[in-house]
Amino acid sequence: MVHVAPTARGxxxxxxxxxxxxxxxxxVRVRRGxxxxxxxxxxxxxxxxxxxxxxxxxxxxxxPPVFSHGSxxxxxxxxxxxxxxxxxHVVRGPADGGRSHGxxxxxxxxxxxxxxxxxxxxVTNAARTVVDLARTAGLVPGxxxxxxxxxxxxxxxxxxxxxxxxxGGGRGVRAARRVVELVDPASESPGESxxxxxxxxxxxxxxxxxxxxxxxxxxxxxxDFWWAEQGVVGEFDGRVKYGTGDPEVLWAEKLREDxxxxxxxxxxxxxxxxxxxxxxxxxxxxxxxxx
Length: 291
Fold this sequence. Notes:
This is CTP synthase. The structure is a single chain. With 291 residues, the protein is an alpha+beta fold. It has twelve helices and twelve strands. The strands form four sheets. Strands 9-10-11-12 form a four-stranded mixed β-sheet. Strands 1-3-2 form a three-stranded antiparallel β-sheet, sandwiched between helices. The chain has a three-stranded mixed β-sheet with strand order 4-5-6. Helix 5 runs antiparallel to helix 6, helix 5 (126-137) crosses helix 8 (173-182) and helix 6 (139-151) crosses helix 8 (173-182). The radius of gyration is 23 Å and the shape is globular. The termini are far apart. Residues 7-12 have low confidence and may be disordered.
């Protein structure tokens, strides 16, 4: 957990010392009145930095808000993709007043809002967060977050269906329904989730995920995508792949692929940019024989 220090606390309370620490690069300003040690900030990924921003907003709030959308996803540890959103999102009742201001976006919601608490931060629960992301950001971000949420046990497909039904016929609900149809906890990374969404959008056959391939020597490995009838294997290059630069890893991966091909399977590989664009990934799969 990252500690976000308000101005009025600790050794940096003195304005002169605070300014010196900022000039010397020992502190990073998260937002007005809240700071994090520079060494800690450098080690944080984008999600953890957003959580630090959420904590800064929480520290300055007169009443603890319920964080939502991408902010809830960051606190819950769910991956987000697509357009970078540095704003902190909160939900409020229609009669609560207040408008979006600066780096805080307020969403007026009616009815019950299911919540969860993580390290003292109250957020929309995982099912609501996935549906909110789907409704506002679209299919890909919704599926990426949904796959991870179900895989990690933060929610279930049944809970996602309930939350979509609760949304009624509002804006973005059609995308949220499609997200729930596509969510599959067998997807083990955002790249695999993005790949599956593009496959669905481009009308490619639905693959089996995480299939174990065996030969006479035993287990060859678990492949990301498998189409049995067409003898095609699909591999998203994002885990232990050719770009690692580690000679032992490269050699082991080459041997694994040689064994896959020796079984008669045709292997297609693609990168994040291929999956995101969609067509380059599809071209690689079709070149391998997928129809």
